[in-house]
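Q: I'm teaching a short session on how sequence maps to structure, and I want students to see two examples side by side rather than one. Could you give me a first protein with its sequence written out and its structure tokens following it? Keep the formatting plain so it prints cleanly on a handout.
A: Of course. Example one:
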Amino acid sequence: MTNAQLVSIQWGIFLSVVFLLPQLVFRQLTFRGATITVYASMLFAATFLPVQTIPPHQPVQLVPFQWVADTFRDGRIAFDQMTLNVLLFVPLGAMLLFWGRRTIGQAALAGYALSLLVEGSQLLWANRIFDVDDLMTNTTGTALGWLGALAVVKVHTRVTAVPQEQPQRSLAGVS
């Protein structure tokens, strides 16, 4: 993990606390509200903080799967970045299944839309890069989060299901 990624995590934790405190003070804190607040804070911190002081070589990257070539050229950093992009959107997919009752297609579309909003904003903010690979990995992360949440629901349903009693057959009519 790079220094910039660690700083982003620290900023995300700080912002989460800042935004959770008023909810706690005014007794408006719910599990759903806290989850969304922490996720939004971490998403903002991961995509916009820390502010870059050195402008990127190219502000737009439109070549799909460029991260593969970057991994061979730069080593593991590009692969780690792609993996973190997927993981960053997994909670969104889970939240859309649990609380939004969305289908996988709707969840993937919402993940794509949010990712497009973030990537578009990065063109205007902090010398970041609009990256088509980020759109793909973020959308994939949302779909994987939805599928993972569905698997959890299915397993939980099976484990907690009350077994149906089998009707007893009467032996009175058997000779």
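Q: Perfect. Now a second example for contrast.
A: Example two:
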Amino acid sequence: MTEAAEPPAAPESARTVFGERLPDAMRYAELLAETGVRRGLIGPREVPRLWERHLLNCAVLGEVVPEGVMVCDVGSGAGLPGIPLALVRPDLRITLLEPLLRRTNFLHEVVELLGLDHVTVVRGRAEEVLGTLPPVHVVTARAVAPLDRLAGWGVPLLKPYGEMLALKGDTAEEEVAGARAALAKLGAERVSVIHVGEDVVEPAATVVRVEVGESPGGVRFAAKRAKAARTGRTRRRR
């Protein structure tokens, strides 16, 4: 069993970002450093940089998420970026989508402990819940998969004219260049690399923004969604 470590003190920038929810962010940092490490959700080497690399890096994503929308955090893992985003943006309705039971158990515990009533935890893979989860305005993801594969999972979950926001690193521009053909087939109309949190984290968080048109996921996924909707209506009539 991996030994838990003491989380670092919250930097002053955390007070600016989390405001009155800073105590909850500090409790979440403790849970990641203790329970998260013991259960293998994060590595012990990540504990010293929990704030800059993880909590703040994810929370600043709130700078570019529209007000009052539905968000699905695909492959949420230990709740990054979904939990920090939920702490700074109580106006959002967030679904944490994660296939592994030990991770969803942890997410349920965090959501209950922090009183995040606007957050729902769903166990499953993106391709499995298509047609059963309501389409969302925004899909978020961090360290889940290369961009082309991630888009294949996340983009079909979007509403028409929604967007996927993927936290990426230094290779973001290269990933975008290599995935443009795949993204176009998935209905992406605009793809850009943006930077958020420039006054909070160093370096600023790099985000790939994929904006879709009328058919998120392309023709194949539109047909799949329509089939799922028909099946749902048939079941409700029975």
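Q: What should students look for in example two?
A: Point them to this: Strands lie at 70-74, 93-98, 119-123, 136-142, 158-168, 188-196, 205-212. Also worth mentioning: The chain has nine helices and seven strands.
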